[in-house]
TrEMBL record:
Pfam families: Oxidored_molyb (PF00174). Residues 472-505 are annotated as: Disordered. PANTHER family: SULFITE OXIDASE, MITOCHONDRIAL (PTHR19372:SF7), SULFITE REDUCTASE (PTHR19372). InterPro entries: Ig_E-set (IPR014756), OxRdtase_Mopterin-bd_dom (IPR000572), OxRdtase_Mopterin-bd_sf (IPR036374). The keyword Transmembrane applies. It comes from Actinomadura viridis. This is DMSO/TMAO reductase YedYZ molybdopterin-dependent catalytic subunit. It comes from the Bacteria. Residues 496-505 have a biased composition (Polar residues). One of its GO terms (biological process) is sulfur compound metabolic process. Residues 233-381 form the Oxidoreductase molybdopterin-binding domain. The keyword Membrane applies. Keywords: Membrane, Transmembrane, Transmembrane helix. GO terms for molecular function: heme binding; molybdopterin cofactor binding; sulfite oxidase activity.
Length: 505
């Protein structure tokens, strides 16, 4: 391409090149310093989350729910590209202004990285972005200085371009590799789990209905859903891990991981589910957890009168509020260290997390937990409750048709219909299913080990040719049947009955 447009494109590209150099250098510096949260992309992402105006945040949370991370990264990438191109264009006729623009953006970001993004942040967190900014300035200066009259070099600079891009990519790669050194997989492999003092009730043989295509009663760990705000998974070394229990207590406690493992452990089957699970959704999983009962720990600390909330904090600064009365009402709230017989995977909260049966994860299931503050809802708010989600969020009764799949084509005759229902800590007492507008029929319920897991159901359908809608609804242990009224997950969980449409020939 030639002419004015071609020059402009080249100028914008020069800006992008400077940005690549800045990011690559910054990632490398973060790796050398061992500060994952100070890496430019991570710091920008976190600052972006913190600085987004409330209306935009509300929109993003309503629209993308808890799965806004990819949207965030794409938006961030677009934002960086736009700013970099703009600086390149500015530098085309006014090199000094371009350099100044890049300098201001860079130092601003560095300041944010140090001040805003994480409770553990400090001045050293500014270093990677500042180093990156210097590299970006050098590249931009070289580009704008090499040709007279502010012209940006075209394809003649191809070698320089390739070298810059290669160095930036190598820097970013090396940085991430160095951060990987903080890897706790060896420490995780070395954890020796204590035997449970209090075993789980055996899972009844029929808990898994014998219908092909049904999900497993116990979710394999590798298939377990993951929801969190972590842009980089916290790697917490169990040797450094401490749990502080403080706030409105008579005797603040500090536990090491060894102290935790030495406590009497309970083993329980508990289904965890996410508030942003939509009708028919799969943001739920059932696992066998091993952990120290949380109520006993709190009683040792001596909870003071007037407290109504536990504010838990994770190693990466996430906060979750849990109603204290729920944790103390006798249910199996656990400070869990293992999932399905193995130490928690890093993505599920290694070395320790909370699990409270009957509450959505955002008010109960803190991963990488390091701090429990006994407090009051009037005093402290948590990450999601500050954003309008409910403080009290018991899991709503949910049921799903898993088999047949939506839009399945079936042969007329006997067809197995089956699915999963849950109402943790209230239990599922009945599941009914319906074809079209026909009568509701009772499904057969599989046995369960207790009130805190999901429950599979199955039925036989004498399918006749045509297009049919299969619908399901569950009744919980309090006798309440799932309403047909549809509600979105915000602010305390979705409602509505799940249905699938199938064709019978
Ligand atoms: N530290 C931390 N813990 C967290 C979250 C988080 O963002 N950060 N998300 C919560 C939410 S919303 C859910 S649904 C569960 C999901 O747990 P899982 O990823 O192990 O399935 O974790 C909870 N614990
Ligand atoms: Mo969630």
């Amino acid at each position: 391409m030639t002419g004015e447009r071609g020059h402009r494109g080249a100028a914008a590209f020069g800006g992008l090149l400077a940005a690549a150099a800045a990011l690559g250098t910054g990632e490398l510096a973060a790796g050398l310093l061992g500060r994952a949260n100070a890496a430019p992309l991570t710091a920008l992402g976190a600052a972006f989350i913190d600085l987004t105006p409330v209306w935009l945040k509300d929109f993003a949370i309503r629209t993308f729910g808890f799965h806004d991370k990819l949207v965030l990264l794409l938006g961030l990438g677009a934002g960086i590209a736009a700013a970099a191109s703009g600086i390149g264009l500015l530098a085309r006729h006014r090199p000094l202004w371009g350099l100044a623009g890049l300098g201001v953006l860079g130092t601003g970001t560095a300041g944010l990285a140090a001040a805003l993004t994480r409770p553990t942040a400090g001045p050293p967190d500014a270093v990677p972005v500042l180093a990156g900014t210097l590299a970006g300035l050098a590249v931009l200066a070289a580009i704008t200085g090499t040709v007279p009259a502010g012209r940006i070099p075209g394809p003649s600079g191809r070698r320089g371009v390739l070298i810059t891009l290669g160095a930036a990519a190598a820097g970013a790669g090396a940085g991430r590799l160095l951060l990987g050194r903080g890897d706790v997989s060896a420490a995780r492999a070395g954890v020796r789990l204590p035997p449970p003092a209090d075993r789980a009730r055996p899972v009844p043989a029929g808990a898994q209905v014998r219908v092909p295509g049904m999900p497993a009663f116990r979710t394999p760990t590798r298939d377990f859903y993951r929801v969190d705000t972590a842009l980089v998974l916290p790697e917490v070394d169990p040797r450094d891990w401490r749990l502080r229990v403080h706030g409105m207590v008579d005797r603040p406690v500090e536990l090491t991981f060894e102290d935790l493992l030495a406590r009497p452990m309970a083993e329980r089957d508990i289904t965890l589910s996410c508030v942003s699970n939509e009708v028919g959704g799969t943001l739920a999983g059932n696992a066998r957890w091993l952990g120290a009962p949380l109520a006993a720990l709190l009683r040792e600390a001596g909870v003071r009168a007037g407290a109504d909330q536990i504010l838990s904090r994770s190693a990466d600064g996430m906060t979750i509020s849990t109603p204290l009365d729920v944790v103390l009402d006798g249910r199996d709230a656990l400070l869990a260290v293992a999932m399905n017989g193995e130490p928690l995977p890093v993505r599920h909260g290694f070395p320790a997390r909370l699990v409270v049966p009957g509450l959505y994860g955002y008010v109960s299931a803190t991963k990488w937990v390091v701090d429990l503050k006994v407090t009051r809802f009037a005093t402290d708010q948590a990450y999601w409750t500050r954003r309008g989600y409910a403080e009290r969020a018991p899991v709503k009764t949910f049921s799903r048709v898993d088999v047949p799949r939506p839009f399945a084509r079936l042969r007329a005759g006997r067809v197995a219909v089956a699915g999963t229902a849950w109402a943790q800590h209230r239990g599922v007492d009945a599941v009914e299913w319906q074809v079209g507008d026909g009568p509701w029929r009772q499904a057969e319920l599989a046995p369960v080990p207790g009130l805190d897991t999901w429950r599979q159901w199955a039925a036989e359908w004498d399918a006749t040719p045509g297009s049919h809608t299969l619908r399901v609804r569950a009744t919980d242990g309090t006798g309440t049947t799932q309403p047909s009224a549809r509600a979105r997950p915000f602010p305390d969980g979705a409602t509505g009955q799940h249905s699938v449409v199938v064709t019978v020939t």
